[in-house]
Amino acid sequence: MADSLPALAFLGAGSMGGAILQGVVASGAPVDGGIVATNRTREKADALASLAGVTSIALDENPAGNTEAVAAARIILVGVKPAMVPDLLREIAPALRDDAIVVSLAAGVTLATFTEVLGERVHTVRSMPNTPATVGQAVTGIAGGPAATDDDMALVRALFEKVGAVIKVPESQIDALSTVSGSGPAYVFLLIEKLTDAARGMGFSDADARLMSEQTFIGAAALLAASGEDPAELRRRVTSPKGTTERAVAVLQDARLDDVFAEATAAALARAKELAAGA
Questions:
Q1: What is the pTM of this model?
Q2: What does the pLDDT look like over 120-132, one tens digit per residue?
């Protein structure tokens, strides 16, 4: 059986919090003390209520739901919208256990904000997961706050490893990490979308175009994972000299994809800094 986790509270189990929550449940890891999730409305709460071992609270019916959830939890994951974080922290501060670890899922909200509201003694961790957590294939960056201990970081790492891979970084790299792994699924989906469009343009049906494109990405990623090879080496193996793939890859390289991805991630990083500044 998987290693157990301490009691968890998900405050704002929306797209990201919900993905982590679903991934933890799907992993089968036992949670000592259970999992409590809060959402603003009954509709959103009901979407999580069927998950095994999860108590789902609608705040519009139980306004004290956040403090009740926090009082029973060792690890508290803050998944509300960034602008709502300070008010939420002020709400839960009196109810935190002495051994509580408060984990941020909020993009652009710094550990300094958590320390300012909760105080320097509260153990805080900033995280940047991505949505493949739902299927146990996330990449999550974690950075410890000033009071976070090695044991705290080990617990938080164990939590996120239930839903994928974990990278420990200084907080100064969290925003940069978010431009690669945080936003990265969108880049992959865009590439699949455009390859599907190209297949349609060659006369394939919508269903066949989608199957070819999606399964090609899924299969290539699985081959990469299974082989342990560098992706450049696998690309070379597919690219026969003077063949069709070589001609296609030349077109893609002429489009300077390296520059395009550098510009895209730089734009995402600039926006992350704007969000952190409240813009």
A1: 0.90
A2: 999 999 999 998 9
